[in-house]
Amino acid sequence: FPWVSYNADMPAAGQNQLIQLFWKPHKKLEAYIRFQKESKSLNGFGLSTNMNELVSVNRSGLRLQSAFQPYPGFIIRNRIDISWFEKSGQKEEGFQTCIDFIYKSIDKPYSMSIRIAWFQTDSYNSRIYGYENDVLYYYSISALFHTGMRCYFLFHQNIHRNWQLWCKLSTTLYADNQSI
Q1: pLDDT tens-digit map of 4-21
Q2: Is 121 exposed, middle or buried (CB count within 10 Å of its CB: 0-12, 13-18, 19+)?
Q3: Which of 59, 58, 49, 145 has its CA nearest to residue 96?
Q4: What is the pTM of this model?
Protein backbone atom coordinates (compact mmCIF):
# COMPACT_ATOMS: atom_id res chain seq x y z
CA PHE A 1 0.00 0.00 0.00
CA PRO A 2 1.88 3.08 -1.20
CA TRP A 3 0.14 5.56 1.11
CA VAL A 4 -1.50 5.74 4.55
CA SER A 5 -4.48 3.48 5.22
CA TYR A 6 -6.72 2.51 8.10
CA ASN A 7 -4.50 1.78 11.14
CA ALA A 8 -1.27 2.38 9.18
CA ASP A 9 0.19 5.90 9.33
CA MET A 10 2.78 5.20 6.64
CA PRO A 11 3.18 2.97 3.56
CA ALA A 12 2.75 -0.70 4.47
CA ALA A 13 2.70 -4.18 2.94
CA GLY A 14 0.76 -7.37 3.50
CA GLN A 15 -0.42 -10.63 2.04
CA ASN A 16 -3.42 -12.94 2.28
CA GLN A 17 -3.68 -16.67 1.53
CA LEU A 18 -6.77 -18.85 1.48
CA ILE A 19 -7.31 -22.52 0.74
CA GLN A 20 -10.67 -24.26 0.70
CA LEU A 21 -11.62 -27.89 0.15
CA PHE A 22 -15.22 -28.67 -0.79
CA TRP A 23 -16.80 -32.12 -0.53
CA LYS A 24 -20.25 -33.16 -1.79
CA PRO A 25 -20.70 -36.93 -1.63
CA HIS A 26 -24.36 -36.70 -2.71
CA LYS A 27 -27.00 -34.02 -3.26
CA LYS A 28 -28.21 -34.04 0.38
CA LEU A 29 -24.84 -33.55 2.09
CA GLU A 30 -22.02 -31.09 1.54
CA ALA A 31 -19.10 -29.89 3.63
CA TYR A 32 -16.06 -27.69 3.34
CA ILE A 33 -12.96 -26.74 5.26
CA ARG A 34 -11.29 -23.35 4.80
CA PHE A 35 -8.02 -21.98 6.13
CA GLN A 36 -7.08 -18.32 5.72
CA LYS A 37 -3.92 -16.52 6.79
CA GLU A 38 -3.36 -12.78 6.62
CA SER A 39 -0.17 -10.83 7.38
CA LYS A 40 -0.02 -7.05 7.31
CA SER A 41 1.58 -4.04 8.97
CA LEU A 42 -0.38 -1.88 11.39
CA ASN A 43 0.39 0.92 13.80
CA GLY A 44 2.23 -0.02 16.95
CA PHE A 45 3.47 2.37 19.60
CA GLY A 46 7.19 3.05 19.24
CA LEU A 47 9.28 2.34 22.32
CA SER A 48 12.10 4.71 21.47
CA THR A 49 9.94 7.63 20.29
CA ASN A 50 6.45 8.95 20.75
CA MET A 51 5.66 8.19 17.10
CA ASN A 52 3.72 5.23 15.77
CA GLU A 53 5.82 2.52 14.15
CA LEU A 54 4.51 -0.25 11.93
CA VAL A 55 4.43 -3.72 13.46
CA SER A 56 3.61 -7.04 11.83
CA VAL A 57 0.15 -8.46 12.53
CA ASN A 58 -0.83 -12.05 11.73
CA ARG A 59 -4.42 -13.24 11.64
CA SER A 60 -5.45 -16.82 10.81
CA GLY A 61 -8.81 -18.53 10.65
CA LEU A 62 -10.15 -22.04 10.21
CA ARG A 63 -13.74 -22.83 9.24
CA LEU A 64 -15.48 -26.20 9.12
CA GLN A 65 -19.00 -26.24 7.72
CA SER A 66 -21.47 -28.95 6.82
CA ALA A 67 -25.00 -28.83 5.46
CA PHE A 68 -27.47 -31.69 5.42
CA GLN A 69 -30.89 -31.84 3.79
CA PRO A 70 -32.92 -34.58 5.53
CA TYR A 71 -36.15 -33.61 3.73
CA PRO A 72 -36.85 -31.56 0.61
CA GLY A 73 -36.81 -27.87 1.54
CA PHE A 74 -35.30 -28.41 5.04
CA ILE A 75 -31.57 -27.79 5.61
CA ILE A 76 -29.53 -28.18 8.79
CA ARG A 77 -26.19 -26.37 8.63
CA ASN A 78 -23.39 -26.52 11.24
CA ARG A 79 -20.35 -24.25 11.34
CA ILE A 80 -17.26 -24.01 13.53
CA ASP A 81 -14.91 -21.02 13.20
CA ILE A 82 -11.57 -20.67 14.98
CA SER A 83 -9.44 -17.52 14.83
CA TRP A 84 -5.88 -16.71 15.90
CA PHE A 85 -4.36 -13.24 16.20
CA GLU A 86 -0.77 -12.17 16.92
CA LYS A 87 0.66 -8.65 17.26
CA SER A 88 4.02 -7.82 18.87
CA GLY A 89 4.19 -11.19 20.60
CA GLN A 90 0.66 -10.85 22.02
CA LYS A 91 -1.44 -13.87 21.03
CA GLU A 92 -5.22 -14.13 21.12
CA GLU A 93 -7.70 -16.70 19.91
CA GLY A 94 -11.41 -17.25 19.60
CA PHE A 95 -14.06 -19.58 18.27
CA GLN A 96 -17.68 -19.68 17.24
CA THR A 97 -20.04 -22.55 16.66
CA CYS A 98 -23.49 -22.19 15.18
CA ILE A 99 -26.36 -24.22 13.84
CA ASP A 100 -28.88 -23.06 11.25
CA PHE A 101 -32.30 -24.52 10.57
CA ILE A 102 -33.57 -23.39 7.17
CA TYR A 103 -36.97 -24.23 5.72
CA LYS A 104 -37.90 -23.22 2.18
CA SER A 105 -41.24 -24.66 1.23
CA ILE A 106 -41.38 -26.06 -2.28
CA ASP A 107 -45.12 -25.67 -2.79
CA LYS A 108 -46.02 -23.04 -0.16
CA PRO A 109 -45.24 -19.30 -0.38
CA TYR A 110 -43.12 -19.01 2.78
CA SER A 111 -39.68 -19.74 4.23
CA MET A 112 -38.00 -19.38 7.59
CA SER A 113 -34.53 -19.55 9.05
CA ILE A 114 -33.27 -19.89 12.63
CA ARG A 115 -29.68 -19.54 13.85
CA ILE A 116 -28.21 -20.16 17.27
CA ALA A 117 -24.53 -19.27 17.67
CA TRP A 118 -22.19 -19.42 20.64
CA PHE A 119 -18.89 -17.53 20.54
CA GLN A 120 -15.91 -16.82 22.76
CA THR A 121 -12.89 -14.67 21.86
CA ASP A 122 -10.16 -12.99 23.86
CA SER A 123 -10.94 -9.52 22.44
CA TYR A 124 -12.06 -7.63 19.35
CA ASN A 125 -8.73 -8.51 17.70
CA SER A 126 -9.70 -12.20 17.49
CA ARG A 127 -13.28 -11.46 16.40
CA ILE A 128 -15.16 -13.79 14.07
CA TYR A 129 -17.36 -12.55 11.26
CA GLY A 130 -20.52 -14.39 10.38
CA TYR A 131 -22.83 -13.78 7.43
CA GLU A 132 -26.53 -14.01 8.26
CA ASN A 133 -29.56 -14.64 6.09
CA ASP A 134 -31.58 -11.45 6.06
CA VAL A 135 -34.60 -9.56 4.76
CA LEU A 136 -34.83 -8.49 1.14
CA TYR A 137 -32.30 -5.80 0.04
CA TYR A 138 -30.35 -6.00 3.29
CA TYR A 139 -27.47 -8.07 4.58
CA SER A 140 -25.82 -8.63 7.94
CA ILE A 141 -22.29 -9.63 8.76
CA SER A 142 -21.87 -9.68 12.52
CA ALA A 143 -18.50 -9.20 14.21
CA LEU A 144 -18.68 -11.51 17.23
CA PHE A 145 -16.24 -11.02 20.10
CA HIS A 146 -15.98 -11.62 23.88
CA THR A 147 -18.34 -14.36 25.13
CA GLY A 148 -21.99 -14.76 24.28
CA MET A 149 -24.76 -16.02 22.04
CA ARG A 150 -26.23 -14.66 18.82
CA CYS A 151 -29.69 -15.79 17.72
CA TYR A 152 -32.05 -14.81 14.97
CA PHE A 153 -35.33 -15.83 13.41
CA LEU A 154 -36.15 -14.86 9.83
CA PHE A 155 -39.55 -15.29 8.20
CA HIS A 156 -40.56 -14.59 4.60
CA GLN A 157 -43.94 -14.97 2.95
CA ASN A 158 -45.19 -14.14 -0.52
CA ILE A 159 -48.61 -12.60 0.15
CA HIS A 160 -49.48 -11.72 -3.42
CA ARG A 161 -47.62 -11.60 -6.72
CA ASN A 162 -46.41 -8.04 -5.92
CA TRP A 163 -46.42 -8.19 -2.10
CA GLN A 164 -44.00 -9.89 0.28
CA LEU A 165 -43.74 -9.94 4.06
CA TRP A 166 -40.28 -10.13 5.67
CA CYS A 167 -39.63 -10.24 9.40
CA LYS A 168 -36.38 -10.71 11.30
CA LEU A 169 -35.88 -10.86 15.06
CA SER A 170 -32.30 -11.03 16.31
CA THR A 171 -30.34 -10.53 19.48
CA THR A 172 -26.83 -10.84 20.84
CA LEU A 173 -26.44 -11.77 24.50
CA TYR A 174 -23.07 -11.21 26.18
CA ALA A 175 -22.03 -13.27 29.18
CA ASP A 176 -18.98 -11.32 30.33
CA ASN A 177 -19.74 -7.61 29.85
CA GLN A 178 -22.58 -5.11 30.12
CA SER A 179 -21.67 -2.96 27.11
CA ILE A 180 -19.61 -3.13 23.93
Answers
A1: 888 888 888 889 999 999
A2: buried
A3: 145
A4: 0.85
